[in-house]
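Hey team,

Filing this mostly as a record. A colleague (T.K.) asked me to run one chain through the structure pipeline before their review meeting, and I want the input and output archived in the tracker in case anyone asks later how it was produced. No errors, nothing strange. Just documentation.

Input sequence:
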Amino acid sequence: TASFLLSASVVCAQNNATFGSIKPTWRDRELERAALREANTRAATTRCQEYFVAAKIVSDDWEPLMGENGRVVGRTVHMELLAETRDGGCGVVHCVFRQRRQADDTWAPRLKLADMGEYYAQECE
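Output structure:
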């Protein structure tokens, strides 16, 4: 089973800020692109009306995901994603992505969407 942690400050930042005013805690363009690919794949398979166009990392660092035996089985990272809708609207969604730890102690190459929060509509920037 997976557990999800959501920082109260992240939720507050999301509810009161435009995407442009959210400051990333660190940048990793490859990770951000992987998050967008994964979120858009999920959106397409669930027939969402949004298309994700930008991502900002809001975690201080990767958070370890512990298994039942106390070993690290993966890691998670929190991001804010900017979405555009087919009717021309915009919004922000908080997402948690995870990466599985492989048997050889490396990280799985694919990022997985672990949790997607509510869509918050906002003015397009």
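Quick notes for T.K.: Residues 29-45 form the longest helix (17 residues). Confidence is low (pLDDT under 50) at residues 1-14.
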